[in-house]
Amino acid sequence: MKEFIGCSVFWGIGATLIAYIIGLLLKKKFKLFIFNPLLVAITLCIALLAVTGIKYEDYNNGAQHISILLTPATVCLAIPLYEQLQLLRKNYIAILIGIASGVLTSGFTIFLMSLLFNLNHTQYVTLFPKSITTAIGIGLSQELDGYIAITVAAIMITGLFGNIAGDILCKILRIKNNVAQGIAVGTASHVMGTSKAMEMGAVQGAMSSLSVAVAGCMTVLSAILFENLI
Amino acid sequence: MKYIKQFTIIIAISLLGEILNRIIPLPIPASIYGMTILFVLLCSGVLKLSAVKETGKFLIYSMPIMFIPPTVGLIESWTTMQEFLLALIVISLVSTIMVLAVAGHITQFIINNNKKKTGK
What we know:
The structure holds 2 protein chains of 2 kinds.
Chain A: H1 2-7, H2 10-30, H3 37-52, H4 56-67, H5 70-75, H6 78-83, H7 85-116, H8 121-127, H9 134-143, H10 148-172, H11 178-200, H12 202-226
Chain B: H1 2-23, H2 30-44, H3 53-72, H4 78-82, H5 85-118
Helix pairs in contact in B: 1-2, 1-3
């Protein structure tokens, strides 16, 4: 059986899809933020691997084929952005300053908290790209000589948090404007947060998509400023 | 036919993004180049929205599923993560809240200010 799973492509894809559908059903039923479909699906898949002893490698052998679509899907984020072109034109100064302030806040917060936790230079630069999309984050971590696997972990934790709590945080923090909500979620928690922003509304989704691209590029630039602080 | 055409266009733009990522020595991924290309094509009218809309929306809607496999992969780097797991989690959560608060409020403040100025 295990041998079959090791070379089966559809097993990994099927398990991932079913886990996500269970997540969607639970969310529909309980409407509690902890029943986030993404969180539920990840937990189920990890539990499945842990219980059955199937290696991640064997699972990913099939499951990776779903993730291949991430690049075309991210490309398509241009569609909602284009649909909100009017709003983008009208508010571009607010949007650019908003994203830039978020990028600087990210750098300063990580710097201060790294001091607090007594992290060394490598650990600090490893966490530095945590708010940007994985593909840019990996590149930046490599450039700064960080631990890439941990950068990915920090990016995932950040994204998952944004995906679970993005709308709740906007409510608690009294960010009411739709454009501002999108910029906030996208700058803080990249593409995973953008999935949540899409659920919050078309405007939020579009602005969040824009933030992922702009914040990613700005973070790469800001690394020059922050790189040697620790 | 419509969906195949749409999917082909999206894949072609992704490929173009991949090529740019390969030639330009910057840590900008293929997806961001592709997103920029599609945005420019739509804005300039070279591509109509109807040429990518349905398939594009389907891909965006399914996006969370694509994050599952790499995130499950975190169990692979568990041993390296344990070293500073607490710092990793606390810093990730706190900085996410801070960035969300600052970026959101500054954007909101400027938009509201502009509205006042234009008298709306």
